[in-house]
Amino acid sequence: MLFIVFGLPGAGKTYVGRLLKDEFGFYLYDGDNQLTDEMKKALKEKKLFNDSMRDVFFQRLINKVLQLHKTKKNLVVAQTFIKEKYRKQLLKAMPFARFILVQTKKVLREKRLLQRNDLHLNYVKKMITLFEKPTVEHFKIENDTDGKIQLIKKLEKILHNQKVNY
To answer: In degrees, to the nearest 5, what angle opens at C-alpha 71 toward C-alphas 69 and 74?
Structure first.
């Protein structure tokens, strides 16, 4: 089983990915590990990524996920997936992948972002304007203040719907 956990920065994608890892035995891969040097430089300079940067990044990411999926029975990838064309590109390469959109209230998302050192809030606000509403089939998880136990219950429901053995 392959889950792609996606959503806006600060929504809790990595947190949900960690729950899948810790509670259900999934292998967690952070998609940002495939950021190119050009993208890392743009982040430092607080410049938004363009589609040519994303094209290279997502090809690298898809190749890495295909490689990991050969040896990892249950794999979860956490990545923003800001544009629909890249979600569709991944599904074309891996039609068995299932997407989980992690959402949270703006105030809570921004509070989480202020606690991080890797992303500046004003940069993220610009980035968010580029996030395209998903049309690919996906599950939704609200990651507000329900807490860990409620998130685990939501993930159990998704997993049971997918008939995953964990």
So the answer is: 60
